[in-house]
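Hey,

Quick one before I head out. I ran the complex with pyridoxal-5'-phosphate overnight. Inputs first:
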Amino acid sequence: MRIYLSRPHMSGREERFVSEAFASNFVAPLGPQLDAFEASLCEYLNTDVNCVGLASGSAALHLALRIADVGPGDEVWISSMTFAGGVFPVNYLGAIPRFFDLDPTSWAIDTAYLEVELRKASTENRLPKAIVPTDLYGQSVDLDALESLATQYGVNLIVDSAESLGASYKNGRKAGTGGDAAILSFNGNKIITTSGGGMLVTRHKAWADEARFLATQARDQAPHYQHSTFGYNYRLSNICAAIGLGQMEVIDERVDRRRDIFERYKKELSNLGIEFMPEPDGLRSTRWLTALTIDPKETGITREDIRLMLLENQIEARPLWKPMHMQPLYENAAYHGRGVDEKLFSNGLCLPSGSDLTMDEQDEVIGLIKTLLI
Ligand SMILES: *Cc1c(COP(=O)(O)O)cnc(C)c1O
């Protein structure tokens, strides 16, 4: 492959921070770089939150759900159109996912369906333990609506902000500050990366303390190893956190660049039967990946025609997430919606969007797509 969907993009300062970690011999899942990385996230998010560095975004979600007391047989209500890592932790805990569709005007979880189902579940005494909406392709969900529903029904709200670090909701409120907790991912293909890693961000200090406890094998206070519950080995490596320190210096540049890439695709390819992911007024997405839909009736081609043609030219493009309720694993799961996500999946495509994509590379992608459209 010559042009990838989204590649790691170093600032050039990461190795210095990693060297400092080596110099102090903190080659371990604790240390000054990890503390500094957590502090830099708290400062960046600019809200009174606690940040806990973890091995991955999925680990962060697993811990958040466990802390929200999700257990065997409990329900977790979740966006159907998302990445598997944002759902599997529900299975780790023996809980049952119930899936929800997207709002076509924002591609965020449709809060109208949620509201109806919460009202029903409340009268039938079967409310979920947690709601997990996804900030899809870097765009914040409707935090006001979700937070007020969560409060009204007394349900935990855990926002999957794995793709939206650097985005903002209304009035500049940063994505990643929502709900009882939000999770972030620093996997290699995300906006910034620590090679692999994640973060739990929570306004509850008790949740952060519990996450640190559970992430380090749930050791009780004692000189020997003493355990009254089971934990996990989920802390972020200090070496990986050092990479994150270099990445945090350029987070806003990376987001600006991804937004520019999106705008350029949009300018060149709109009005040819291609539509781009909407951005509601007042919100600012990271545009982690440029997501678009192709109308086969209007264009005479499908998203697969474009994807395969790009692949022949060693350019990576990928269909939008296949909704979870369409996955064989979840064929028996409940789903509420009208198939907005199903349609986005059948017509949707993500184009190369890494912040290191050059203008020439983007021109090539645009030129190739135009040969199919005109
Ligand atoms: C990347 C991602 C995750 C998982 O994060 P990892 O760090 O890869 O475990 C979860 N949810 C969404 C929406 C993601 O994009």
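The two ends are 26 Å apart (CA to CA).

Talk tomorrow,
K.
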